[in-house]
Amino acid sequence: MSSGPTISPGEFTHFKTAVLEGGILLAGFDYSGKSVNVLNGESMSEWQEIVRLAEQSAAINGVVLVSLKEGNFCAGADLEQMHDAQRRRSFQEIEQLVITAHRLFDGMEQSPKPFVAAVEGACLGGGLELALACHVRITSTHPRTCFALPEVKLGILPGFGGTQRLPRLIGVPAALDLITTGKTIFPRQALRMGLADGMVTSIPSTVRTLESIQKETLVQAAIAQARVLCSTLVRRRSLRLSQRFLSVPVVRSLLCRYARHQVFKRVRNFYPAPLRAIDAVEGGMRVSILEGSLNIERPLLLDLMAGPISSHLVGLFLAGEEVKRNVATVPMAAMRIGVLGAGLMGSQIAGQLAEKGYAVVLRDVLPGILATAIGRIHTTQTAQVRKRIILPSDLRYRMMRIAPTIHIRDVRAASLVIEAVSEKLDVKRAVLAEFEAEADPDAIFATNTSSYTLADIAARALHPERCVGLHFFNPVAKMQLVEVVRAPFTSDKALVQASSLAKRLGKFPLVVHDGPGFLVNRILSRYLAEAVIMVGEGISIRRIDSIAKNFGMAVDSGHPMGPLELLDLIGLPVAMHVLTSLAVLGPRIESRDTLLRNLLPEKKPPLTFWKSGKENEQAVDVVANYCRAYPSEAGPISDEILHQRLFLPMVDEAVRCLHDKIVEHSWQVDFALTYGIGFPAFRGGLLAWARQTMTPGQITQELESLAAKHGKRLEPCPSLSTGGL
């Protein structure tokens, strides 16, 4: 319980304060009007006033900073404010915020009174930089607690002193890794590397008030630590001997050179932010933290912020927030989910559900497939134990949540069932019929189909209104997009329950209307089919994929990938099935079926275009034989024409999807293709790139020219010429 005077609580909109026994000021961050805490002019001004009052008050001996938001410590800078500044091309307000943050955080760090951060929930970007300016960080093991400096993913670098404080705290190598990748780490990792000074198991209060959270173990530990530091304040823990050696100027220079090499290896030269962040770290280590923050980090940040890449990336991030904001998080009728089909996708979905605390009934008709699925899930979860992300006990609990079965009756108690059986229409319809015979009348049936429409699957359903699509992308753990498919008969309840589940899994649930290929696969099919046609014309595998990789396809995954390499990843049998199913869209979905069949020898594994990083000689021979049998009349083709043939058909199909109301807005197309197929985020999305590159009339003209030379499949959509872009 609090005692003593409060510090003008009525004056603060975004913080609650109380002075506790021993003169410890407890400051609860609770940004008004948002679900997460953010740092902007308003909240920073209030925190500045709290720090000033704490410094000047003889009744206050130390400060503990906590969050009153469940699952969020601080999400960092207010990106809506930043994106507005980017659109207006006016950065004075942002620059002033940065200067204020640097001076404020330096004042905290130099203060004779200890500042302790009690971190529970996501501690990201500027939020982590705020915690770094505190003398001590205590973290909880709450499942949503994590740490990251993800600014490079937004085209900028940490701008509140992160490039200066983090290397001094955990050493240059570890800091460069976190800063240049934007990777997320979890409490045990943070404790091991010295980012956190202590870790406790704490059960968060359901009522998030300043009084109630004082009963939490985390907050009690932070208060106790602050009281200890009041008499013996240690500014910073000393670096270990190995870390001090790696901070020697010559060694540091070599480390920075190596980090630049790793950045180029991962994202080539498409993204300047990681390289500028390395410059900030290297230059800042020669001067004080405040000087490095103001004179090295700040100008690099503002330069990056003013560039188009950051504007694109921030826009896509905010689009993701819009996708999530449009989905209401509703309580599930039960925390039990059924998964029908224990193949590759089914097992991955089941594993993700178990990670998030759901009890999963995993059903397949063959015990051997179930055994393989459980082994696959166990292997994936064990990797997290090996990386010290979770404890062995967490692994056991997750595995215990999954109940394998061969009986459909065992899914009876599930409130929602996800179908992930083989891509055969009669099999999917049979599974739906089994579900309807056993399931609760209110249970939802969600199909993970990638090649059939929801209307096809539910054509014989007794209750089609409870059928919805949940199209996950492979690999499920890494791909953030989920297409939530709504047919005309899908009920609002089914749509909301499916969307809410995807959101709870940490995915972006993008609602799309039913139709062949939905949104992503429909557009992707034009890209893949044209690549196969090019191969059939005798254009080399390497040349086709190089054009796509030089454009930046899949660079954000850390593994740039062309269309033929993507076909290898998908698997030719699956790709051929999807392309065949999309033939209903008309002649524009054309591929070389004969060539693909030749790459699928009977009773042998499918041939791949690539093998061990080189063109597969067997595939090259098959293609050569095909070209001799079906010679092309195209003649020599420039790289520019190949580039147009790969990407302009995708633009055309995207416009057709908008015309068919698969989605309503062009930003939804851009968002879906960025997170669904790896369209380069730094270009802002497919349609954003098209608008920046050419006018609708120019795109129409180019497609007409391509159609005249290479086939009617390339004829443009009429909506293009009327401004449909």
Describe what this molecule looks like in 3D.
The strands form four sheets. An eight-stranded mixed β-sheet has the order 12-11-10-13-14-15-16-17, with helices on both faces. A six-stranded mixed β-sheet has the order 1-2-3-5-7-9, sandwiched between helices. Helix 4 (126-132) packs across helix 5, helix 5 crosses helix 12 (289-305) and helix 22 (563-570) packs across helix 23. The chain is globular, with a radius of gyration of 28 Å. By secondary structure, it is of the alpha/beta class. The chain starts with 14 loop residues before the first strand and ends with a helix. It has three domains: 9-308, 2-enoyl-CoA Hydratase, Chain A, domain 1, CATH 3.90.226.10; 336-514, NAD(P)-binding Rossmann-like Domain (Rossmann fold, 3-Layer(aba) Sandwich), CATH 3.40.50; 521-721, Orthogonal Bundle (N-(1-d-carboxylethyl)-l-norvaline Dehydrogenase, domain 2), CATH 1.10.1040. The chain is 50% helix and 12% strand. It is built from 30 helices and 19 strands. Mean pLDDT is 92; it is low at 1-6.
The CATH topology of the largest domain turns out to be 2-enoyl-CoA Hydratase, Chain A, domain 1
Total individual domains: 3
Mean pLDDT: 92
* Strands ordered across the widest β-sheet: 12-11-10-13-14-15-16-17
Q: State the helicity in percent bands.
A: 40-55%
Number of helices: 30
Largest sheet: 8 strands, mixed
What general form does the structure show? globular
Strand content: 5-15%
Q: Can you say what the CATH homologous superfamily of the largest domain is?
A: 2-enoyl-CoA Hydratase, Chain A, domain 1
CATH class of the largest domain: Alpha Beta
Number of strands: 19
> N- to C-terminal separation?
60 Å
Radius of gyration: 28 Å
The assigned CATH architecture of the largest domain is Alpha-Beta Complex
Uncertain spans: 1-6
Q: What structural category arises from helix and sheet content?
A: alpha/beta
